[in-house]
Structure formats: C-alpha cells, structure tokens
Design a protein that fits this description.
mainly alpha, 434 Repressor (Amino-terminal Domain), single chain, elongated, 5 helices
Length: about 100
C-alpha cells in the first residue's frame, strides 16, 4: 500500500512481474489454465485474486498462494479504511466484565 497515493491493486504487481519476466497476460493465463479475460480483469484492477487463482499464481511464480491472497487482502482493507474514514472510530469496543 502506498501511504501517499491510491492503494495498489495486486493486479498492478502482477503486471509488473509479467513485464519483468517478459510474458503477456494471455500467455500467463494459458500457462496457469485460467480464462484470458480473468487475467486481464485482475491486471486492470477490475477483479480480485481468488483463492484458486492464488494457488495457480503461487505454483507458477514459485511463491505461496498466501502471498497473492495477502496482497489482495491488504488492498481491500486499505480501500475499506479509506471509505470508512473516521466512522469506525465511533464504534465502542466490547468490554468483557468478569463477574465473581
């Protein structure tokens, strides 16, 4: 996440990786056996990385699926924080009271 700009969608990171290794989104989709439109939507920030896609990306890139899901989770949490703003601070935390 960028503290100074918009949250970074995991598709941007995926696109950067593809550029670095020199393959296209269509080629990756073929290699990990997912529809091309899914890969394009992820890269364009229009779709989330699901658990199944994370498994496939982890296998292809030699990472864990957790890496890809954590990127997605971090992105979604930052988007939610920004949308919620200070309203979340109004929620009073639950206080467990011990009774003797």
């Amino acid at each position: 996440m960028s503290k100074f700009g918009d949250p970074i969608h995991p598709g941007k990171i995926l696109a950067d990786e593809l550029t670095f290794i020199g393959i296209t989104a269509a080629s990756l989709a073929e290699k990990i056996e997912v529809p091309k439109n899914r890969m394009y939507q992820i890269i364009n920030g229009e779709r989330s990385i699901t658990a199944v896609t994370a498994l496939r990306l982890g296998q292809f890139f030699g990472t864990t699926p957790d890496f890809w899901l954590n990127l997605q989770k971090s992105y979604e949490l930052e988007v939610a924080r920004r949308k919620s703003g200070d309203r979340i601070k109004d929620i009073v935390p639950y206080q467990h009271s011990a009774q003797a």
